[in-house]
Amino acid sequence: MLKIFKSKKDKLPKSEIITCEPQVTKEPRTKCGKPLVLDNTRWERRLHKELMSLIKEPPPGVTVDTDSIGQNLSEWKINIAGFEGTLYEGENFQLLFKFNNKYPFDSPEVTFIGNNIPVHPHVYSNGHICLSILTEDWSPALSVQSVCLSIASMLSSCREKKRPPDNTLYVKTCNKNPKKTKWWYHDDSV
Amino acid sequence: MSLTPKSVDFNEIWPNLRSTAEAVITLGNVNRSDWSTRFSDVYTLCVAHPEPYADRLYNETKQFLENHVQNMLATRVAPGPCSTSSVNGEPDLLQRYYDAWTEYSQGVKYLDNLYSYLNQQHIKKQKISDAEVVYGNLSSDTMEQMEIGELGLDIWHIYMIKNLSDDLVKHILEDIKADRCGSPEITPNRVKVINGVVHSFVQVRGYKRTGQLKLYQELVEFPLVMASADYYDNEAAKLLKTCTVSQYMEEVIKILEEETKRAKKFLHATSMWRLRKQCEDRFVNRRLDFIYSECKDMVSQEKRKDLRNMYKILKPIADNLKSQLIHTFLDHIKNEGLETISTLSGENIHIQFVENMLKVHQKFHELIADVFENDSLFLSALDKACASIINRRPGDRQPCRSAEYVAKYCDTLLKKSKTTEAEIDQKLTNNITIFKYIEDKDVYQKFYSRLLAKRLIHEQSQSMDAEEAMINRLKQACGYEFTNKLHRMFTDISLSVDLNNKFNNHLKQENIDLGINLSIKVLQAGAWPLGPTQVVIPFAVPQEFEKSIRMFEAFYHKSFNGRKLTWLHHMCHGELKLGYLKKTYIVTMQTYQMAMLLLFESCDSLTCKDIQSTLQLNSETFQKHLQSLLESKLLNASSESLEGNTKIELNFDYSNKRTKFKITSAMQKETQQEQIEHTISAVDEDRKLYLQAAIVRIMKSRKVLKHNALIQEILSQSRVSFTPSISMIKKCIESLIDKQYIERTPNSGDEYSYVA
Amino acid sequence: MKLTIKSWTGVATWRWIANDENCGICRMSFESTCPECSLPGDDCPLVWGVCSHCFHMHCIVKWLNLQTMNKQCPMCRQSWKFNIH
């Protein structure tokens, strides 16, 4: 169950918290550039911030299913509504975001879930999405919000509702994790 | 001689062997050839053919020894007077026993050598191994054969000691009692006799693998300890009737020493501590009430001799029994400490506070070394007392000001003064002693960093080395996080020195003469405790040095990409040369004051309104600084109140004995009290944030935690820098519940769970 | 000259000039530090790319170290080059 801060001011200013932390922190402090050991609790702040802004100022058609968010923010469910004037008008979809502890340096794992998987040339019937920013074109400057918007725009620009040509084979043979798939991003226009 | 086994006649050899054995055991004369012959006789008998005579030899020898000892008892030891006093000159029982034992024990050793072959080849082979003793179920009294030396001792025990022990022990106890009374009969020789008799009970069992001391303990130690206990009890009772506590303790120490010596003199070494324990029990443990009856006075009057004695006699007893002395001592330190700091007043209160506390600490530290042998129990009492004095709040509502005092004390030392560097160094080191007791280390840090900032910005430090050394001391005591910002501030200053040099070189290279001796300090915004004053006050920089500032900024931006400078004019100051008076003066003043005076370069009189609008100062800053210039008499005002039309004029009649001086800065008018309150409330804010962060951290890892467990964890985490009040922790928990970071678990009122 | 300035001792603080308030990688304010530091300023500096985007140095270095092939600016995907001046 997720609760929201009463106001932005209420949140603990980050720099203050850190400055007065006792010297005996258990996690080893690594500066960037040294062997990558992400200190989860510190970097989790970013996820927290993202969640707050998504709840407070959601982009049109996007809502966070706050009940779905677990203790450590590692899985979110986000509802997306098909935009008016597109092939998906009136439909509702649900996305599952999974974050590992390297986020935002590693992309989240994003799939459609639920009964209604959009029929779209880049969306497989198991919910996997062929979208380059989710794998090789990921950048830490991207966010949950920008990913949602990309997916929404991918849906909006669709001209014909159909599954990808290799859907049957892919769904049979693919790894559960879409990030394990070596995508071949054949069509940038859709 | 031949080593081949041969047929021999036992009856032929034994009588000779027996007579030699007799001579050996009585320490008679045995010539070498006899010895050698008998030695090989033993061998011959043991290897005799067709049947060896080893068992027979053993039995005959045993018989011989039994007879010998019985004979000794009957003819030499038993007959005669029991005690010396009865008949003059004749040896008494102890002496006779001792003489007999001395001879016999030595004789048996020789005899054992004579029977080497029997011992080595015949008996040792039959002996059960150590492992069998431990693991087998053989009783130790199996009819095994013993080596001849052992056999001799065993026989002595059976035929001599068993018969005489009651009498012997009775005499031993009597003699020890006589020794306690200082009887002249206990001569050194007599001591030797008693000691010999006592030790014979140990030696006679010396060959045993275990329980060598059992016989001795049963016969001598136990009865003696019992008898001594009664004796000690009586003595203690007697002393109580006649002595003061002080005398009693001295007597007890004397008795303890004597009894230890006595134990060494007469008894086996292992008995010493048993006797001593008994002695301590009767004289100390059972008389604690009496010993403690004057404890309070002795402590409060610091009667070192008595305290030393008390410690000496209490030292060996259980720690909990000493607690009364320790508590009394602790209270005494507390009282003295509180007294020395409670009456402080005046401007130098911080110096008095630290120095008085140090005196108290040093005094008792020395006393503990001198009187209580640096016992850790007493050292920790000193620590507790000091911590309690230093962290005591003068009243419920009043904060404890020690952290502030100690920080100010450092400031006083580190500021320019006539004190030598070595002395400062020593004092700062001492100061750490007091610092370590402070619970509110965060308050200290706040004060310290503000004062350090002032010293560094206003160049008031006596020595940068001393500053650095002090920061390092704090780092040692509290860790890197504690001094992080202090280090940073320190570094900023040395970086600024470099920067100024580079800037000056740059000016030289470019052939620029600013006409002003410029010196700039560039501080890293986050590291300095500049407080709300960081808010920039609007100010039109006078053109006289605006160019210089711009030159510097340009230079800085070229050196450091992506940084912007904000000038803290209220902290800047300069020297202004006044050339319009009879004498030339050089006056140090703040930038705002300087800017105001500079306006009079082209005229002699201005209205308040003109000044304020030219400089674009807000009225508070304007009033404050103009006021300070009026007070310095450099300017005159046409009226008391500084209205817009009030005329301000240069005072051409100004004169001063000194040609170089400084105008009091306007900032100092902020009252000290305000500053202190401000610092304390800043600390409070920090603490709340710290506690909230700690609670979130703890709850995040624990998920669910009971109230008390949470409080404990918070306390242990925050100990490094401060001890939060429970009420503050509770407030923080409440506010986190409000913010829905955590919530009360529904089924239990005193349990919280983490909300993701 | 009635009044001449002999010397002036100035005190200034410095901050980063960044075109954004927050670091695009960690989303922390540039006025404070990256998530792994405690003291803002020199200890946790900002760096600029030639593309003019600005990050906490620790954040961008961490990102660049994770990129095996082409090291790009997270904001504009231009190949990343530090803007030394």
UniProtKB/TrEMBL annotation, chain A:
SUPFAM superfamilies: UBC-like (SSF54495). Pfam families: UQ_con. The keyword Transferase applies. Keywords: Transferase, Ubl conjugation pathway. It is an enzyme of class 2 (transferase). GO terms for molecular function: ubiquitin conjugating enzyme activity. Residues 42-190 form the UBC core domain. GO terms for biological process: protein ubiquitination. Its EC number is 2.3.2.23, 2.3.2.25. InterPro entries: Ub_conjugating_enzyme (IPR050113), UBC (IPR000608), UBQ-conjugating_enzyme/RWD (IPR016135). It catalyses: S-ubiquitinyl-[E1 ubiquitin-activating enzyme]-L-cysteine + [acceptor protein]-N-terminal-amino acid = [E1 ubiquitin-activating enzyme]-L-cysteine + N-terminal-ubiquitinyl-[acceptor protein]; S-ubiquitinyl-[E1 ubiquitin-activating enzyme]-L-cysteine + [E2 ubiquitin-conjugating enzyme]-L-cysteine = [E1 ubiquitin-activating enzyme]-L-cysteine + S-ubiquitinyl-[E2 ubiquitin-conjugating enzyme]-L-cysteine. This is N-terminal E2 ubiquitin-conjugating enzyme. It comes from Bactrocera dorsalis. The lineage of its organism: Eukaryota, Metazoa, Ecdysozoa, Arthropoda, Hexapoda. The gene is UBE2W.
From TrEMBL, chain B:
Belongs to the cullin family. Keywords: Ubl conjugation. Residues 401-630 form the Cullin family profile domain. Signal peptide: none annotated. This is Cullin-2. Gene3D superfamilies: Cullin Repeats, Ring Box Chain A, domain 5, Winged helix-like DNA-binding domain superfamily/Winged helix DNA-binding domain. It comes from the Eukaryota. It comes from Bactrocera dorsalis (Oriental fruit fly).
UniProtKB/TrEMBL annotation, chain C:
It comes from the Eukaryota. Pathway: Protein modification; protein ubiquitination. GO terms for biological process: anaphase-promoting complex-dependent catabolic process; cell division. Keywords: Cell cycle, Cell division, Metal-binding, Mitosis, Nucleus, Ubl conjugation pathway, Zinc, Zinc-finger. Residues 34-77 form the RING-type domain. One of its GO terms (cellular component) is anaphase-promoting complex. It holds the Pfam family zf-ANAPC11. It is found in: Nucleus. Signal peptide: none annotated. GO terms for molecular function: cullin family protein binding; ubiquitin protein ligase activity; zinc ion binding. InterPro entries: RING-box_E3_Ubiquitin_Ligase, RING-H2_APC11, Znf_RING, Znf_RING/FYVE/PHD. Its main location: nucleus. Together with the cullin protein ANAPC2, constitutes the catalytic component of the anaphase promoting complex/cyclosome (APC/C), a cell cycle-regulated E3 ubiquitin ligase that controls progression through mitosis and the G1 phase of the cell cycle. The APC/C complex acts by mediating ubiquitination and subsequent degradation of target proteins: it mainly mediates the formation of 'Lys-11'-linked polyubiquitin chains and, to a lower extent, the formation of 'Lys-48'- and 'Lys-63'-linked polyubiquitin chains. Belongs to the RING-box family. This is Anaphase-promoting complex subunit 11. The lineage of its organism: Eukaryota, Metazoa, Ecdysozoa, Arthropoda, Hexapoda.
